[in-house]
Amino acid sequence: MHRLAQLDHAHIWHPFTQMRDWLKREPIIITSGKGAVLRDVHGKEYLDANSSIWTNLHGHQHPKINAAIVRQLKKISHSSALGLANEPASKLAAELVKAANPGSRRREEADSTLVTKSISSSGRLQKVFFSDDGSTAIEVALKLAYEFIRRTRGWSSRFSVSPNKLKLGLQPKFLAVDGAYHGDTVGAVSLGHIDLFHKAYSGLLFKTDKVMAPYCYRCPFNKAKPEREDARKYRKCNWECVGKVEQKLCAQKRRGNPYAAFVFEPLMQGAAGMIPQPSGWLRQVTELACAHGALLIADEVMTGFGRTGVTCHVDDAAIGRATKSFSDAKLFACSRVGITPDFLCLAKGLTGGYLPMAATLTTQKIFNSFLGEYEEFKTFFHGHSFTGNQLGASAALASLNMLQTKQSVHSRAVLQKTMADELKSLWSLPNVGDIRQVGLVAGIELVRDWQTRQPFTLREQAGIRVCEAMAQRGVLTRPIGNVIVLLPPYCTTPAQVRKMVTVLREAVNDTL
By three-state DSSP, how is residue 430 classified? Predict the structure, then answer.
C-alpha cells in the first residue's frame, strides 16, 4: 500500500463514507489534474465525470484561473470583511448581481415556452453576503428570511415580544421539497428531507414541512407505463404534485401563520437522486408560494453557473441560436424560467471549483429591514472568518468572465448535445430504468427490470459497485443510491464524453 494511503487510513475521516469499508482497500489518491483528467499516485489517469463533486467548471489547472490567483497572491491573500472592504470581493458582488438579473428582456427561453412575466415577491437581487460553502449560503438565507418575516409580520424582535403572538406560538415556518438536501449545518439540515442523512440529527433540528417532489419516474399519480425515454416526456397525470403544494400552502395559511419561505432547487434536485422537474412545475409552484406570501429561497449550489445548460433544446439550430445570443445566456436556472427569488444561494462552481466560497444574493427590501440606529441592534449578527476572501473572489471573477464568452456558451451547448446523443445508447440496457438530463447534468437510475421499475435495495450497493467498475476503467464519479451521476467539466471533449458513457455501459453490463 502506498505510504500516502497508509497516512490516509491512519488519520483521515472521509465525509459520507462508511469507514469500515474504506479501510479494507487502498484508496485512489489524486496527485494532479489537467482539463477533465485526473492522475493518481501510480500515474493512472481518470476522467473526472462528476467535476470533483459538482464544483469544477472549466477543468483542472485552467491557465486563466491560475493566473488570476497568482496575480492576487502578489497583492494579498486575505483580509477581514469585518470593518474592511477589498477590491476583488467588491467587483465580484457587482458581477454576481449583474448575472443574477439578466436584463429586462422577457422573451426568455424557458420550459419550451416564452416567459412573459418574471415571478418575484420582493424585487431585484441587489445585495450579496459572502460565506464559505453551500451549507453556509443556505444558512444565511434561512436566518435572513426568519428575521425579515418576524419583523415585517410584527411578531417579535429581540427586545420586544407581542404577548398575543407569543401566546399563539407563531414563529416563521419553512416549506421544502421531499428529498431535499440543502447542506449539513443545523439550519440547512432542518430544511433537508432525506432521512438517510438527516434522521440521526432529528433531536437537534427545528421542524420544517415538505411537499412531494415532481419525481415523474416514481410518481404515484403518473399512470403511464414505463417507456425507453425520460419519464417526464411520457407522463400521464393531472399535475397532482402542484395541487399538493397548493393544499399545503392553503392549510398553513388557515392556521394564521403563512409559510415564511419556500426552499427549492430549481430545475433539478441533486442529492435526491438527480430528480428533474417537468416543464412548467417550477413556475406554477413558485407563483403559488408568492401568492401565499412566502419568500423564495433558490438553492443553486449545484445548478448555478451554467450547469443547467444554455438552451432547453439541443439540436444544431438551438446551438446556433444560443451562441448567437451568447450575451443573453442565463447562468442560473431561475433566470431560465423567469423567476427572481428573494434569496439566491450559490457555492460549488462559484470559484470554478478552485477555492471554498459561497454567496447569498438578496433584495434591497430585505436588506433595508436590517437598517437602523446602532442601539436598535438590527444588525445581521452572522459572519465568517473568510467572508469575501480575495483569492476566492479573484478566481470567481476569472470564472465568471470565461462563462460569459461566446466560446464558452458554444462549447457548453455542444457538450450538452453530445451528452444527450451518447446517453441514448444506455436505453438498450435492461437495468437502466430512467435517464434524466438537464443541461450538463445527468442521472441514470438503475433498476432490476426497466419494465417493472423495481429498484435495487441500498444493501445491494448497485450504484457503488457500478462506479467502482467505472473507476477501474478510468472514469470517476459517485452514485446517489442507485443513480449514476454524470456531471462533466465544461472543457470535456466529445471523445471524453463518449468514453464516460461507454465505460458506464460496460460497467452496468459487467456488474448487474
Answer: coil
% of the chain at pLDDT higher than 90: 86
CA gap 198, 185 in Å, rounded: 11
**CB 219, CB 179: distance < 8 Å:** no
What DSSP designation does 419 have? H
Cell readout for 119 is 415571478
The pair phi, psi for residue 275, each rounded to 5°, is -95, 115
* Helix, strand, coil share of the chain (percent; to 5): 40, 15, 40
Cβ(304)–Cβ(407) under 8 Å?
Answer: no
- Ordered by start, the domain boundaries in the chain are 3-63+409-511, 103-182+242-370
CATH of 103-182+242-370, picked from 3.40.50.880, 3.40.640.10, 3.40.50.300, 3.90.226.10, is 3.40.640.10
Higher pLDDT, 196 or 346: 346
Residue 314 pLDDT grade (very low, low, confident, very high; cuts 50, 70, 90)? low
- CA 2, CA 26: separation in Å to the nearest integer? 8
Please, what is the end-to-end C-alpha distance for the chain in angstroms? 29
The three grid cell numbers given for residue 42, joined into one nine-digit string = 501510480
Taking only the tens place, the pLDDT of each residue in 325-378 is: 665 579 999 999 999 999 999 999 999 999 999 999 999 999 999 999 999 999
Please provide the CATH number assigned to the domain covering 3-63+409-511.
3.90.1150.10
Q: What's the chain's length in residues?
A: 512
Question: Where would I find the H helices in 113-260?
Answer: 134-152, 163-168, 186-191, 195-198, 231-234, 240-254
432: nearest Cα among 475, 471, 468, 466: 466
Using CA atoms, how far apart are residues 165 and 156, in angstroms rounded to an integer? 8
Residue 120 has pLDDT above 90, yes or no: no
Q: Strand 30-34 and strand 441-449: pairing?
A: unpaired
Which tens digit of pLDDT belongs to each residue from 453-507? 999 999 999 999 999 999 999 999 999 999 999 999 999 999 999 999 999 999 9
C-alpha cell of residue 77: 491573500
